[in-house]
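User: Here's a structure from my thesis project, written as structure tokens. My advisor, Dr. K., wants to see whether a designed sequence matches the one we expressed. Can you design one independently, without my sequence as a hint?
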């Protein structure tokens, strides 16, 4: 059965190669308006923090990719319910010289989740399962362990999809190419690289992100449908939407690797084995393209606008986009309300960092995929350029005012500080009339004063507040980590 399925997927990919060439020719005929927009975004990357009174500084995308050590980027923009443009930048593999194009596959990371959630909603529409029934009713060969917390409140699919089931295991580290992949029951039992998936908070009480919960959901889909999860997704979700360059197969077969991106660490170096594998398919196992994710966004938008033959009914999509705790739907995260509602998800696997956002009622969306651990800051700068040049309603940039402090005031903060939990010692130095910290876990920090005790590094948006009581006792980083002055 596996061989037949693999051949089916291969045939889809081969037939799609011809379609890709046609698509590429089409992309080369963008209108002057679209080409102008692409150029403006490519050369208009913006930092999220701007200094009051200073000229707004913009950057070229290739410059910032080099700065952040991100070899490859793929972008797709949706407007008026259609893909307006899609383009790749840089390299999918720096060793082979393979460049990123609009058809290059990236690991979606946690963007796998909202797409995977459609499987449950599909089975719900077919009356194969209920969203508010104890999932143990559907599970075969493994059950959610019972305890005092589950006596009165049960783990349900609705709670799993909205991260309110009280289930453990935030995310998954992946497996390199030489490691044997565990089966789904092994993962659930804690016999992979993560702890046993269980309930340790009363279901429904709080929101807590859980990749473990989506692994339980994956098992439910397999047990109810009688199909491997990747096969169910291809036949019932991906292909009906038109996502022909996407697969949940893990590991991805070699015959599907013709246009696939390698993964890079925070230093821009290839990950051993080119990428990790993720047997936790629903939570992190999707290989896809920015254009295919755009088709997912368009499908949801079209259904909301009245499409009758969509992957799901409008009633089910409205249920999917109803806010639960922490503004989370049944799969995607949610932002704003009513006509301005935005749905989406971020994605992070080893060596891949991505983001997807779509306006539910306005036919607009962006997808940005990067092949590096350092992609997060780059994503924000690209997003800021998109919001500005496409005249979208969100503004992520913030203007801050830098004040002047005397050299004497600045020098009192110099010295060595210790982060005791990690045994880390760093030194605050005075250089060229400002404070400076080098070799921190997040890079070098140039500290500019915004109050007498609070400083900011514009590049990373890191805020450091010194603790002063007659003398300097330490500082706090981003209202989180405390370091004590030791010298």
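Assistant: Designed independently from the structure alone:
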């Amino acid at each position: 059965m596996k061989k037949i399925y693999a051949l089916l997927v291969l045939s889809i990919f081969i037939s799609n190669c011809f379609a890709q060439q046609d698509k590429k020719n089409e992309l080369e005929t963008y209108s002057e308006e679209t080409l102008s927009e692409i150029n403006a975004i490519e050369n208009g990357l913006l930092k999220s923090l701007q200094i009051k009174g200073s000229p707004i500084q913009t950057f070229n995308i290739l410059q910032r990719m080099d700065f952040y050590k991100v070899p490859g980027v793929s972008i797709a923009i949706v407007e008026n319910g259609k893909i307006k443009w899609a383009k790749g930048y840089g390299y999918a593999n720096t060793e082979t010289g393979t460049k990123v194009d609009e058809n290059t596959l990236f690991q979606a990371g946690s963007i796998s989740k909202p797409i995977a959630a459609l499987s449950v909603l599909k089975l719900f529409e077919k009356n194969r399962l209920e969203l508010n029934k104890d999932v143990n009713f559907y599970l075969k060969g493994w059950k959610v362990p019972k305890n005092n917390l589950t006596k009165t409140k049960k783990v349900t699919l609705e709670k799993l999809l909205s991260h309110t089931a009280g289930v453990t295991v935030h995310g998954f580290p992946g497996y390199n190419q030489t490691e044997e992949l565990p089966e789904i029951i092994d993962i659930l039992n804690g016999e992979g690289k993560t702890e046993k998936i269980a309930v340790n908070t009363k279901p429904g009480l709080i929101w807590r992100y859980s990749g473990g919960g989506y692994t339980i959901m994956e098992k439910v889909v397999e047990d109810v449908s009688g199909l491997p999860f990747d096969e169910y997704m291809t036949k019932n979700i991906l292909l009906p939407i038109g996502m022909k360059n996407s697969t949940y197969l893990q590991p991805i077969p070699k015959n599907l690797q013709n246009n696939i991106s390698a993964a890079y660490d925070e230093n821009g170096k290839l990950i051993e084995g080119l990428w990790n594998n993720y047997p936790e398919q629903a939570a992190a196992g999707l290989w896809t393209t920015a254009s295919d994710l755009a088709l997912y966004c368009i499908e949801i938008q079209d259904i909301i606008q009245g499409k009758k033959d969509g992957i799901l009914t409008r009633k089910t999509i409205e249920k999917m986009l109803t806010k639960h705790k922490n503004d989370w739907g049944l799969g995607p995260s949610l932002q704003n309300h009513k006509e301005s509602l935005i749905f989406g998800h971020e994605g992070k696997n080893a060596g891949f960092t991505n983001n997807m956002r779509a306006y539910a009622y306005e036919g607009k969306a962006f997808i940005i995929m990067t092949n590096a651990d350092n992609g997060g800051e780059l994503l924000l700068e690209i997003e800021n350029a998109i919001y500005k040049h496409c005249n979208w309603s969100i503004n992520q940039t913030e203007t801050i005012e830098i004040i002047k402090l005397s050299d004497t005031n600045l020098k009192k903060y110099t010295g060595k500080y210790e982060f005791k939990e990690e045994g880390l010692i760093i030194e605050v130095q005075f250089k060229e009339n400002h404070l400076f910290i080098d070799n921190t876990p997040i890079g070098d920090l140039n500290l500019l004063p915004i109050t007498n005790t609070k400083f900011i590094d514009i590049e990373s948006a890191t805020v450091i507040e010194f603790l002063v009581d007659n003398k300097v006792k330490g500082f706090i980083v981003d209202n989180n980590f405390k370091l004590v002055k030791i010298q």
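When you compare it with your expressed construct, this may help: The two ends are 67 Å apart (CA to CA).
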